[in-house]
Design brief:
Number of domains: 1
Bound molecules: S-adenosylmethionine
Number of strands: 7
Oligomer: single chain
CATH superfamily: Vaccinia Virus protein VP39
Distance between the termini: 43 Å
Strand content: 5-15%
Radius of gyration: 18 Å
Structural class: alpha/beta
Length: 273
């Protein structure tokens, strides 16, 4: 306890949803991500997850999509030990500690300056971890990031907050900056955006969800021709669903038979460039 939090904007406040999701998962009998540091950070900032209306499914989806994004980074770094890792809209996520990459990797966590200031107080520092306090819509935030190394870029819970033109500019800036790499993020379909604005647990975000969402995972290839869709990871089909509580597991396994229904749940999209 004890870290004083500045007044966050509603967009910045969204980091508590994902942080609490991972922390609650770590307390579950059969955790998916087992991110104990998320719970430690919650404790340091004195945030009570009971203040958020969490459904069991929401908590597991947050933990599982984080795990899938971790795996994208782990696989890339195993192939490219000199990689640069970018975590866009990192919030108070401690992905670096879950992935635990070699010291040859340079890792960048990017979020608004107010969020990065809190990160510095509650997430342990490491020599090869850098933070950038900026809006991702600022055309200069990438200026200090090496241009000559392969990059793996992840964004967990970010895209909904980027207006479409800002998202497209960001994609093009990222793929133009590095010689090559991978980009992965959890997708927001138009259905997700509709739900985000109406579901009681996320209704506070109604005014700040800026992205319209997209249904075809190939669409980003049209916005940035350097991108190629490599993988659509539908969480309904993840092996970890075996550890869901019975009713949720049965429902999820049924939904897994349909790609359309599965896309109504969470998908992680992975592109190469
Ligand atoms: C739902 S939270 C997810 C945080 C973190 N990735 C996680 O999984 O816990 C979304 C994050 O994106 C950040 N964000 C949204 N728009 C941003 C922008 N334009 N520039 C930088 N960060 C942004 C917010 O401040 C917030 O921390």
């Amino acid at each position: 306890m004890g870290t004083a939090l500045p007044a966050f904007t509603p967009v910045q406040d969204s980091l508590f949803l994902t942080l609490c999701g991972r922390a609650l998962d770590s307390r579950a009998e059969r955790p998916i991500l087992a991110d104990v540091m998320a719970d430690q950070i919650l404790h340091k900032i004195g945030f009570d997850p009971a203040t958020l209306p969490f459904a069991a499914k929401g908590m597991r989806d947050i933990a599982l999509r984080a795990k899938k994004l971790d795996e994208v980074v782990e696989r890339f770094v195993a192939r490219h030990p000199n990689a640069v890792v970018l975590d866009l809209g990192a919030g108070l996520d401690s992905r670096f500690f879950r992935v635990d990459p070699p010291s040859t990797v340079d890792w960048y966590d990017i979020d608004f300056p107010e969020v990065v200031a809190v990160r510095h107080q509650v997430v342990p520092a490491r020599d090869n971890v850098h933070t950038i306090g900026a809006s991702l819509t600022d055309p200069h935030w990438l200026d200090g990031v090496p241009t000559d190394r392969p990059a793996v870029i992840v964004a967990d819970g970010l895209v909904a907050f980027l207006a479409q033109d800002a998202f497209v500019s960001l994609l093009n800036r990222l793929t133009g900056h590095f010689p090559g790499g991978e980009l992965a993020f959890n997708a927001y379909t138009r259905f997700h955006v509709w739900v985000l604005k109406r579901y009681s647990g996320t209704a506070s975000l109604a005014d700040v969800v800026a992205n319209p969402g997209f249904d075809d995972p190939h669409e980003p290839q049209r916005w940035d021709p350097r991108l190629t869709l490599v993988e659509e990871i539908l969480l309904t089909r993840a092996p970890e669903v075996a550890d869901y509580p019975t009713a949720l597991r049965v429902w999820t396994r049924l939904a897994a038979h349909s790609t359309a229904l599965s896309r109504r749940g969470t998908a992680v999209l992975r592109y190469s460039f």
